[in-house]
Amino acid sequence: MIKKTVCFLSKKHRLIVMSFLLSIPIFSQDLEPRVYANVAKDLNVVALGYGFMDGNVLTDPSLPIKDFTIESHNLVASYIRTFGLADKLARVQVTLPYTFMDGSLTADNGSVLAGSRHGFGDTKVRFGINLLGSPALEKKEFKNFEQKTILGVSFVTSIPTGNYYGDKKINIGTNRWAFKPEIGVSKRFAHFYAEAYGGIWLYTNNNDYLGKKLEQKPTYSLQAHASYYFKNNMWIGFNTNWFFGGETITDGVADDSQIDNWRVGGTFSTPVAKGQSIKLQYHVGAYTNNGLNYYALTLSYQYSFF
Prior knowledge:
By secondary structure, this protein is mostly beta strands. It is 6% helix and 58% strand. It contains 3 helices and 17 strands. It is globular and about 65 Å long.
């Protein structure tokens, strides 16, 4: 079945489909290339990933805690389905993480508290549609389509399915809903591919935060990606993002928790068989405040089929 699917596409468009490799969005501060990629409709993509994080990072890095360090091992399963909507290419992505983390926290009195957590994280669902430059095409039509500039929008929902303890400051789940509308633009230049996204995270209240009500102001995000594609279908990319805002308010009292966080990283992707790819990504903080100084390494496997 995979052989018949792939042979409908030219080498150039096989590269596009093969490079449609899922990012592993374990945390809110993702670097996610190819979110608005142009592919054929009725494409299914299944991905399994592993991520390692070390430093001052939480499962919800929009909520920083000072003097906190962890080592976090994360397993992630994700699925994408593309389809046509009003003759535009649309897609839906569902992602579910499972996290193991060990960490230590320096309390206000100077004592060091250590502990571990494990369990499912919050489920994320992304719905997106490419409004311009990416019509919904069958795989036979797609092979002759020349991509120019794409303009797309998406809406991400974070569902509070993660493991959460109301009497603990450190948790895997967030015990609140979060929503992120986003707009993105991408353009292909021969072997180069450029992308930029802008979005805003909006949060509901957590009414069980150490017996108090936790509110958070919106967190704004900007991402940019530049990728180079080789003739053998491998590609490498440079990734960067910037998150700012997100001040927290506990029982009506605001604290000094506003985020100003800039991260940079790189991505390497290569096909391993028809319809199968692996991707390696590394990113690190270039500028941080209020903690959030960590590095992340992820490895993921993708299987694509019609």
